[in-house]
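Follow-up to my post from last week.
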Amino acid sequence: MVEKRNPITVEDAIKRVMKYRKTGEIEYIDIKQANGRILASDIIADHDVPAFNRSPYDGYAIKSSDTSNASTDNPVVFRVVGHIGAGSVFQDTVKEKEAVRIMTGAAIPDGADTVIMLEDTETLDNDQVAVKKQMENLQNISLAGEDVKKNTVIVPKGKIINPGIVALLATFGYKNVPVSKKPVIGVIATGSELLEVDEELQDGKIRNSNSYMMIAQIERAGAIAKYFGQFSDQLDTCIEQMKSAMTEVDFLITTGGVSVGDFDLLPDIYKHFQANVLFNKIRMRPGSVTTVAELDGQLLFGLSGNPSACYVGFELFVKPVIDTFVGRNQVGMKKAKATLSVPFTKANPFDRFIRGHYELTGGKVEVSPSGKDKSNMVHSLAEANCFIHLPGGTNGYNKGETVEICLLENV
Amino acid sequence: MVEKRNPITVEDAIKRVMKYRKTGEIEYIDIKQANGRILASDIIADHDVPAFNRSPYDGYAIKSSDTSNASTDNPVVFRVVGHIGAGSVFQDTVKEKEAVRIMTGAAIPDGADTVIMLEDTETLDNDQVAVKKQMENLQNISLAGEDVKKNTVIVPKGKIINPGIVALLATFGYKNVPVSKKPVIGVIATGSELLEVDEELQDGKIRNSNSYMMIAQIERAGAIAKYFGQFSDQLDTCIEQMKSAMTEVDFLITTGGVSVGDFDLLPDIYKHFQANVLFNKIRMRPGSVTTVAELDGQLLFGLSGNPSACYVGFELFVKPVIDTFVGRNQVGMKKAKATLSVPFTKANPFDRFIRGHYELTGGKVEVSPSGKDKSNMVHSLAEANCFIHLPGGTNGYNKGETVEICLLENV
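User reply:
Got it. Predicted complex:
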């Protein structure tokens, strides 16, 4: 009973999935936990930066008009009437021939309109300082609002919060930061050949690696993984397990069981649920049997049991849904061009996504496959930081040709 | 009392800091939490992969010698004696003209030495199948150990664990994963101009942004931040606060107070502790007053209160110590070459580290400064994903010239 399936393109598959995307909610977290999260509202400046006219140097705040004749030969003597560090405010007004010793970052006192640097002065006795240089109005003053004007959007929502953005959040008083709630993604493994990670090997069986890989991919993509363990071999039990899992998650991933093999349960489960199967065959390698279904608006991702196909299926179809849920402005993998450092001589009847490793070498982006490209080789996944995308319908690629890569890290 | 300081090079400064590096311990965590941590022991294969001779296809396991005369015109008829899915084992031995229906991933039964694909057969009545093709010994069989041999080092320690590595950990039975313990890094802010993040603005004051930025940088670098709040203005209280903080952390960062300004307390604190000041002046911009001291082998990082200088100081001097603590094989920022997309016309008497944003554009690495390069502009930090490093003693750089960049993300 080999079922006939209708293969569609990768693009079309992504489009069909994205029809059922959801948007998550905002939650507020402490600024100390904000790094790496997605900013859910624009950051708005609650004040000018600087908030006041500020000294960029250590020196003396004076009236520039008092220096109109100052020179090395003709120093002008000022009386030092105050001494303020950053954070302090001079309470008086600076008058003619008066100087306030001022530190970097401190507010310019009223009456003063310039700061003369320490090295352009000479300290005399009796709280007096000699100025040997002409100064201009507003010289050496960081003006209020010079960096940032109040009410400006400083950082637009949808960005991944990094340490620099954290600094801005702190500057503008965001003790609690609006971030996107992470979606919860369920993971269920199928396959009677699977042992759990802590089981001893048995004849004919392998340990379940896909589920843990998925959990890590889900976390890397900025979502929360919920692992439900392995499915029963029994259709009835399976159906119950899946039904229950769906109520606890935003999206559900199953691994394995989507082929047309005699022991593949997923097609029957979808049938039982009367789920809307968006596609069950894609013109791509690996992962051609990747299946996505929708039930009452909830996406059920049926990824292949083959580790490479499973990995690719996640990044191509699940990640964009996560990105949308958290409101990232980059949806799906970031793409770039790279120079192939090995040839791929075979023609590509289908879109191929080859696990690759790119390096920045001498100002150029170079990419090579990460390990032999055998779809059952978990091994080559460890070094992968991108996919090499060879579009379907193309001939082989030579070494040195430019290809598209899809970046795997979220930065 | 402007103190005379001896400037040293960035390289020399890093060397002096690294003399007091420490190595952390190993801890074991659940594989579900392993993503992003540093692998602390080599991953060793506890079995061959495949662990047994395995079928890469859906088909029939047979003896190749039975097909020596098979062709489309002369099909050879086999009796189907079993049917095994992945994870099942055929308990008998395959004899002449016997076939076992086999699924992808299942173990090759004893007696069989090849798998004929479904499409090269024809199913007849009475549990019989016709084979129309000659097969060779071991054709279509994934041999035990073909991917990975038992006892091979699969992934060397020191790597950041990614989803592919998690898959390998699961395959080889690592339910508990050896990872490097994260160092604890204390953060203390100094500066009487500083308000806390949730305080209303006051005349002459700014909110403390450096501490939160540091916390985010510490987390990005893979360590744990412990924030001790702001220092008192009083030397005595300061000394007590710092002494107590040192007992709770592996490394301690203070921000601000390291200049030669009249209100800068750190030099006096180092003196009080009789700490070994490794340097207090570096031939670099920003961050020339960055100070690092050592007390009984513990590093005290005195970063500048200027946000950009603080940021740069952390990445240059604190990050390598974290990388070493966790045993990463990449110590310090990863470097690369990039093409400048704007000119830097001024000469560089000192090493400059300009916050930059690099992009992969048409197969090339292009970099530009992220925002105007004013050292008091927090703003430009938000977009930075690298530093543009202009070495001291160089003239200006033109647009299109190649420069070194230091990458800020740990991937």
